[in-house]
Amino acid sequence: MxxxxxxxxxxxxxxxxxxxxxxxxxxxxxxxxxxRPSFQYGLSGRRMSxxxxxxxxxxxFGLRDFKAPVQLQNTYRLGPTPSxxxxxxxxxxxxxxxxxxxxxxEKYSTEICSNLVQQISDVIKSKIKDLGFSSRxxxxxxxxxxxxxxxxxxxxxxxxxxxETDNFASASFSCGDLFAVANVFxxxxx
Length: 190
Known about the structure:
By secondary structure, this protein is α+β, with helices and mostly antiparallel strands. The protein has helices spanning 2-8, 88-103, 110-129; strands at 137-147, 167-175, 178-188. The termini are far apart. Residues 51-56 have low confidence and may be disordered. GO terms for molecular function: dynein intermediate chain binding. One of its GO terms (biological process) is microtubule-based movement.
Protein backbone atom coordinates (compact mmCIF):
# COMPACT_ATOMS: atom_id res chain seq x y z
CA MET A 1 0.00 0.00 0.00
CA UNK A 2 2.83 2.39 0.86
CA UNK A 3 4.53 1.53 -2.46
CA UNK A 4 1.47 2.57 -4.47
CA UNK A 5 1.18 5.82 -2.51
CA UNK A 6 4.84 6.67 -3.11
CA UNK A 7 4.54 5.95 -6.82
CA UNK A 8 1.49 8.23 -7.10
CA UNK A 9 3.26 11.23 -5.53
CA UNK A 10 4.41 13.85 -7.96
CA UNK A 11 8.15 14.21 -8.23
CA UNK A 12 9.78 17.54 -7.39
CA UNK A 13 11.00 19.72 -10.23
CA UNK A 14 14.41 19.98 -8.60
CA UNK A 15 16.57 17.02 -7.68
CA UNK A 16 17.03 16.23 -4.00
CA UNK A 17 20.66 17.32 -3.81
CA UNK A 18 21.37 20.66 -5.46
CA UNK A 19 24.70 22.39 -4.89
CA UNK A 20 24.48 24.60 -1.82
CA UNK A 21 21.13 23.20 -0.64
CA UNK A 22 20.65 20.42 1.86
CA UNK A 23 17.55 18.32 1.95
CA UNK A 24 15.65 17.16 4.94
CA UNK A 25 12.43 17.74 6.84
CA UNK A 26 13.70 20.88 8.65
CA UNK A 27 15.28 22.73 5.73
CA UNK A 28 13.64 25.29 3.50
CA UNK A 29 14.34 25.80 -0.16
CA UNK A 30 15.62 29.13 -1.32
CA UNK A 31 13.83 30.74 -4.20
CA UNK A 32 17.12 31.27 -6.05
CA UNK A 33 19.36 28.63 -7.47
CA UNK A 34 22.54 30.67 -7.20
CA UNK A 35 24.06 31.20 -3.78
CA ARG A 36 25.11 34.82 -4.19
CA PRO A 37 24.27 37.05 -1.21
CA SER A 38 21.73 39.79 -1.78
CA PHE A 39 20.16 42.59 0.23
CA GLN A 40 17.18 40.49 1.21
CA TYR A 41 19.14 37.33 1.96
CA GLY A 42 22.28 37.67 4.06
CA LEU A 43 25.44 35.66 3.86
CA SER A 44 23.75 32.75 5.58
CA GLY A 45 21.25 32.41 2.72
CA ARG A 46 18.27 32.85 5.02
CA ARG A 47 15.90 35.75 4.84
CA MET A 48 16.52 38.34 7.55
CA SER A 49 13.69 39.03 9.98
CA UNK A 50 12.86 42.41 11.44
CA UNK A 51 11.25 40.99 14.54
CA UNK A 52 12.60 38.71 17.19
CA UNK A 53 10.32 35.78 17.82
CA UNK A 54 12.27 34.50 20.79
CA UNK A 55 10.49 36.50 23.44
CA UNK A 56 8.62 34.46 26.00
CA UNK A 57 6.29 37.29 27.00
CA UNK A 58 5.08 37.83 23.44
CA UNK A 59 6.69 41.24 22.99
CA UNK A 60 9.06 41.76 20.14
CA PHE A 61 12.34 43.47 21.01
CA GLY A 62 13.80 43.61 17.51
CA LEU A 63 12.45 47.04 16.62
CA ARG A 64 15.09 49.70 16.10
CA ASP A 65 13.17 52.76 17.24
CA PHE A 66 11.24 51.11 20.03
CA LYS A 67 10.56 53.48 22.92
CA ALA A 68 8.97 52.35 26.13
CA PRO A 69 5.84 54.31 27.06
CA VAL A 70 6.43 56.94 29.71
CA GLN A 71 4.80 56.02 32.96
CA LEU A 72 3.63 58.92 35.08
CA GLN A 73 2.89 58.96 38.76
CA ASN A 74 -0.75 59.01 39.81
CA THR A 75 -1.90 62.47 40.84
CA TYR A 76 -5.03 61.31 42.64
CA ARG A 77 -6.62 64.57 41.53
CA LEU A 78 -10.39 64.28 41.24
CA GLY A 79 -11.00 67.78 39.93
CA PRO A 80 -9.27 70.68 38.22
CA THR A 81 -7.36 73.32 40.14
CA PRO A 82 -9.33 76.54 40.67
CA SER A 83 -7.29 78.37 38.03
CA UNK A 84 -7.94 75.63 35.44
CA UNK A 85 -11.70 75.22 35.82
CA UNK A 86 -13.90 75.94 32.81
CA UNK A 87 -15.08 79.56 32.93
CA UNK A 88 -18.23 80.14 30.86
CA UNK A 89 -17.74 83.92 30.62
CA UNK A 90 -14.38 83.57 28.80
CA UNK A 91 -15.81 80.91 26.51
CA UNK A 92 -18.86 83.04 25.66
CA UNK A 93 -16.65 85.98 24.67
CA UNK A 94 -14.64 83.75 22.33
CA UNK A 95 -17.80 82.22 20.87
CA UNK A 96 -19.40 85.62 20.19
CA UNK A 97 -16.28 86.91 18.44
CA UNK A 98 -16.08 83.80 16.23
CA UNK A 99 -19.78 84.01 15.30
CA UNK A 100 -19.48 87.71 14.44
CA UNK A 101 -16.35 87.24 12.34
CA UNK A 102 -17.78 84.32 10.33
CA UNK A 103 -21.39 85.45 9.98
CA UNK A 104 -21.08 89.26 9.97
CA UNK A 105 -21.91 89.87 6.31
CA GLU A 106 -23.50 86.55 5.36
CA LYS A 107 -27.00 85.99 4.03
CA TYR A 108 -28.83 82.74 4.71
CA SER A 109 -28.20 80.00 2.16
CA THR A 110 -28.53 76.28 2.92
CA GLU A 111 -25.42 75.37 0.91
CA ILE A 112 -23.19 77.98 2.54
CA CYS A 113 -24.54 77.56 6.05
CA SER A 114 -24.22 73.77 6.07
CA ASN A 115 -20.46 74.15 5.49
CA LEU A 116 -20.13 77.07 7.90
CA VAL A 117 -21.64 75.10 10.79
CA GLN A 118 -18.78 72.57 10.75
CA GLN A 119 -16.08 75.23 10.30
CA ILE A 120 -17.43 77.45 13.08
CA SER A 121 -17.77 74.50 15.43
CA ASP A 122 -14.14 73.44 14.84
CA VAL A 123 -12.82 77.00 15.27
CA ILE A 124 -14.75 77.54 18.50
CA LYS A 125 -13.54 74.23 19.94
CA SER A 126 -9.89 74.94 19.09
CA LYS A 127 -10.03 78.50 20.49
CA ILE A 128 -11.58 77.30 23.74
CA LYS A 129 -8.84 74.68 24.09
CA ASP A 130 -6.31 77.52 23.75
CA LEU A 131 -7.82 79.42 26.71
CA GLY A 132 -5.77 77.38 29.19
CA PHE A 133 -8.39 75.32 30.96
CA SER A 134 -7.36 71.90 32.24
CA SER A 135 -6.31 69.43 29.54
CA ARG A 136 -8.66 66.86 31.06
CA UNK A 137 -11.73 68.72 29.81
CA UNK A 138 -13.58 67.17 26.89
CA UNK A 139 -15.56 69.62 24.76
CA UNK A 140 -18.69 69.21 22.70
CA UNK A 141 -19.52 72.16 20.46
CA UNK A 142 -22.95 72.46 18.86
CA UNK A 143 -23.66 75.26 16.37
CA UNK A 144 -27.10 75.87 14.88
CA UNK A 145 -27.68 78.29 11.98
CA UNK A 146 -31.13 79.09 10.68
CA UNK A 147 -33.11 81.58 8.62
CA UNK A 148 -34.57 84.46 10.60
CA UNK A 149 -38.24 84.94 9.73
CA UNK A 150 -39.30 86.19 13.14
CA UNK A 151 -40.18 82.69 14.28
CA UNK A 152 -39.50 81.15 17.66
CA UNK A 153 -36.88 78.47 18.12
CA UNK A 154 -36.34 76.40 21.24
CA UNK A 155 -33.13 74.42 21.69
CA UNK A 156 -32.88 72.12 24.71
CA UNK A 157 -30.21 69.74 25.97
CA UNK A 158 -29.81 67.38 28.88
CA UNK A 159 -26.83 65.71 30.40
CA UNK A 160 -25.74 63.96 33.55
CA UNK A 161 -22.60 65.50 34.92
CA UNK A 162 -20.73 66.68 37.97
CA UNK A 163 -21.93 70.20 38.88
CA GLU A 164 -18.62 71.04 40.62
CA THR A 165 -16.42 70.47 37.54
CA ASP A 166 -18.61 70.38 34.43
CA ASN A 167 -20.23 73.43 32.84
CA PHE A 168 -21.48 74.90 29.58
CA ALA A 169 -21.42 78.18 27.67
CA SER A 170 -23.87 79.55 25.14
CA ALA A 171 -23.74 82.45 22.67
CA SER A 172 -26.15 83.67 20.02
CA PHE A 173 -25.86 85.88 16.97
CA SER A 174 -28.50 87.47 14.77
CA CYS A 175 -27.98 89.67 11.73
CA GLY A 176 -30.26 90.26 8.74
CA ASP A 177 -32.01 87.08 7.71
CA LEU A 178 -29.94 84.54 9.67
CA PHE A 179 -29.40 83.59 13.27
CA ALA A 180 -26.89 81.34 14.96
CA VAL A 181 -26.70 79.69 18.37
CA ALA A 182 -23.50 78.10 19.66
CA ASN A 183 -23.31 75.84 22.70
CA VAL A 184 -20.17 74.38 24.25
CA PHE A 185 -20.35 71.67 26.89
CA UNK A 186 -17.22 71.07 28.99
CA UNK A 187 -17.01 67.77 30.87
CA UNK A 188 -14.07 67.04 33.16
CA UNK A 189 -12.59 63.61 32.49
CA UNK A 190 -11.02 61.97 35.54
